[in-house]
Amino acid sequence: MNRLKWRRFKQKVHDHKIKYLIVALFVFVFMLSSGYALLQTTLSIGGRATIDNGNQCDISIVGDYQVNNSWNTNGLYYYDVTISIENRGEEDIVNWELVIDGPSDVDINWINATYTIDSGIIVATPLSYNNTIEAGDTFSLSFNVSTVEDELIFNAMSLDGCVFYGNGGSLDSTLTALDITPNSFSIAAGEVEILTPIRTPVFNKSQITWTSSNTSVATVSNDGTVTGVSVGQATITATCEGISATSTITVTESTVILESISITPSSYRMTVSEEVTLQVNRTPSNAAAAVVWSSSDPTVASVDQNGRVTGVSVGQATITATANGNITATCSIKVANAISSSDVNITHELIGGGYMGGDTVQFRIDIENLTDEDIPYIKITYDLPDDLTWSNWQSHIVSFNGNVHEMIVAQNNVIPANGTYSISGSVTYPEKYLEDGFNPWGGAVKVIPQQYLDFPIDSIEFE
Fold this sequence. Notes:
Shape: flat
Strand order of the largest sheet: 1-2-3-10-6
Distance between the termini: 105 Å
Helix content: 10-25%
Oligomer: single chain
Radius of gyration: 35 Å
Structural class: mainly beta
């Protein structure tokens, strides 16, 4: 019976050997691919990884790192490493920041970037020539590191906060500690000291808010620059993500005698509810003196003791800064109603060229002020190609942005109340914009299309 079954099995195999061969081949290929994938995973732990961040980040990147070579000298292991990052997004990544969590004793021996290291955390930022990872391109960063570890393993890597490689490490940028250096110091009135925040982790980039406990003694700017104002003590506080650090400043008497002060700007036009902060300039610049601010008419424009002026109602007022009780400077403030595009009438007139062919035309722009107040500033944006040549426009053309021309018209020339201000100049069009036109005397002629001669306005802005 057993022999009969065996013969039947052999016959069945013989009859279907092609089918079994295909199945066996399929299983073999499947096992081979599975084994190769397993091999890749194993190799990635040893120093190579390719991890797609998916939709977890604002940028779409794929990155890997490769240990190209290694050697041992005097108990240290040196590694030649290349990190490659592919930008799969539609926008360039500019002024990137690369953070690497490596061995705690890791040190950089060479890298084509600016870097800092703290407890194994490497923070690299670009140089001027490699600060952009263009959309669709792959960027490579090569460097040499040293460590006592006989195998280099990066625990995690991120670009602009997007983690593209992780092997059990953490790149959480949440602030855990904050300190200031120096934590106490002394300067004379009029002198400055720059405070440096120390963050943990070092790659935390959250904004720091700086404050002074007594601005009549010392002030502090947004970048941690402290200025001594008058004799006394103050506490400078840095706050970030709810964590604060302090530094104590002692201001001593200045030996430099204040001669004069001025205010920047010396005059200003503003609208109701608008705010502007005036700056006091001392002569000599390192002379110290507390400044008292006042307004000739707080119902028109008010001012606080930091020099911040607020427009209250339409009118004029004089803001005065007083130092040492008898040294003064003033700023003339005019508060006016806000101006809109309906307050002006802009017309364009062709005054030369473009009639019987040619690539250059002369235009005049008339801006009529329909209000009872002077207009000191207006910016007109034209929706025109960006490769036109503008000439003799009295420096009113200020910038080109895509296919938009921006023209500041009244920056230095006030448009008078109920008056008209005119400017003129030439515009030359490249040949690609010209089209065939009618020539009554025969022969070919090229003309500028009417759509460009209309000078289409995209927007109007007032300061």
